C-alpha cells in the first residue's frame, strides 16, 4: 500500500527492473470508509437497546462518558466505568476497563 503522492517512487523502480505489478485497489481509504460505514449501519439495525457510539463522528466528552457509563451498566461483568484522576483544570478523566 503506497500513498498516491509517493506511487511514482515505487512504480519507477518496478518498471526499471521489469518487475510485474498489479494495482488491486485504487483508493484504500475509500474502501475502508465504505466498509466501516456499512458495519455501523448494520450495527445500528442489529440491537438498538445496546449502547452505541459513532466513532466516525466527533462527539462531546459528555456523550462519550454517557456511552461508557451505559456500557458498564449493560454488562457490569465485562466493563467497569472508572475515573483515573483529574485534569489540571480539575475535571474528571474517565474511562472504561
From TrEMBL:
<feature type="domain" description="Peptidase M14">
    <location>
        <begin position="57"/>
        <end position="97"/>
    </location>
</feature>
<protein>
    <recommendedName>
        <fullName>Peptidase M14 domain-containing protein</fullName>
    </recommendedName>
</protein>
<dbReference type="Pfam" id="PF00246">
    <property type="entry name" value="Peptidase_M14"/>
</dbReference>
<dbReference type="GO" id="GO:0005615">
    <property type="term" value="C:extracellular space"/>
</dbReference>
<comment type="similarity">
    <text>Belongs to the peptidase M14 family.</text>
</comment>
<dbReference type="GO" id="GO:0006508">
    <property type="term" value="P:proteolysis"/>
</dbReference>
<dbReference type="GO" id="GO:0004181">
    <property type="term" value="F:metallocarboxypeptidase activity"/>
</dbReference>
<dbReference type="GO" id="GO:0008270">
    <property type="term" value="F:zinc ion binding"/>
</dbReference>
<dbReference type="InterPro" id="IPR000834">
    <property type="entry name" value="Peptidase_M14"/>
</dbReference>
Amino acid at each position: 500500500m503506497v500513498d498516491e503522492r509517493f506511487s511514482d517512487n515505487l512504480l519507477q523502480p518496478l518498471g526499471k527492473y521489469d518487475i510485474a505489478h498489479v494495482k488491486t485497489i485504487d483508493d484504500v481509504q475509500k474502501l475502508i470508509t465504505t466498509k466501516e460505514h456499512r458495519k455501523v449501519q448494520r450495527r445500528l439495525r442489529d440491537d438498538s437497546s445496546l449502547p452505541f457510539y459513532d466513532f466516525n463522528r466527533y462527539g462531546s466528552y459528555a456523550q462519550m462518558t454517557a456511552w461508557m457509563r451505559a456500557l458498564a451498566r449493560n454488562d457490569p461483568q465485562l466493563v467497569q466505568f472508572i475515573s483515573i484522576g483529574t485534569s489540571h483544570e480539575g475535571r474528571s478523566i474517565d474511562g472504561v476497563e
